[in-house]
Amino acid sequence: MYESFYGLRERPFDLTPNPGYLFLSNRQREALSTLRYALKGPRGLMLMVGEAGTGKTTLVHTALSELGSGDAQCALLSNPTLTRNEFYEFLANALDLPGEASRSKARFLLDLRDYVSQRHAAGKLTAILFDEAQSLPPELLEEIRLLSNIETPTTKFLTVVLAGQPELADRLNEPEFRQLKQRIGLRCELVAFDLPETASYVAGRLRIAGGAPAEIFTRNAIEAVFEGSGGVPRIINVICHNALIGGFATETKPIPRKLVEEVLRDFDLRDESGSADDESDTRRRSSAEAPSPAPASPVAAASDQQTEDSQEQRPASALLGTFGRKRRHSFF
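^ thats the sequence. predicted structure below, dont judge the formating
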């Protein structure tokens, strides 16, 4: 399809999270370091918040993949909309506790305390990670708080990681969850990319696929991707993928801004400050209200059009070439 047209790989290739190929902004790097620290030993509760699509799940899987299958026993719950009984059944199975533990909460708690204390004495880590934790029912948040009580006066036996969207932080500010919030010992936040980070991220994806970034998107196209995505990696992926399809269909290389804007209209994608269409409408209204310029000569008009076309077709080297050349990249 468009892969061969743009010189990209046509066959699937391994995208297993790998720190050597992971694009990290400053906030992502800080969050991954905090998560690594939390999984190096029993740290109690950790909170990681970020908007949808900013890379929480990728960082969780990256940190877990680094642990391997050695001295760490980790249970990852990605769909936390469970009943209390299902919650304990899942944890019992994930931590390889005896069969009786999955059928009785009292049996589960006794077996879990024995299990984590023995592992801690042997220098081994036990951790429970909750992805999409903003969806946890209130009763399960209370159960998690009680699980964090498995400790001695001087030592914690269990690491619990809550990764979720900002609504999770809002819930923890409610009076009924104040005790849980007080137990959070580590906290980090993921934010969207800025324009240079967006350009570097796109460049990284294209390089991994075998392409030359500056030959595939113009500078103005990358700016439009940033405006439409708000710097959210997941949305950047959607916009660029569909812009490449559109460019292939029209045999356009490199991708200009107008093709990206067509994708933004088709998907109704808007950033936090408003839509790209709103900005275009503002520019059009400003032009309509401004006094009409004096007619230009045909030579001047042609020169102006040539300048405008050259700016649109200018490769994105200023963005795609300057940022991220010293880094290796992966996908969020």
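The chain has a mean pLDDT of 81.
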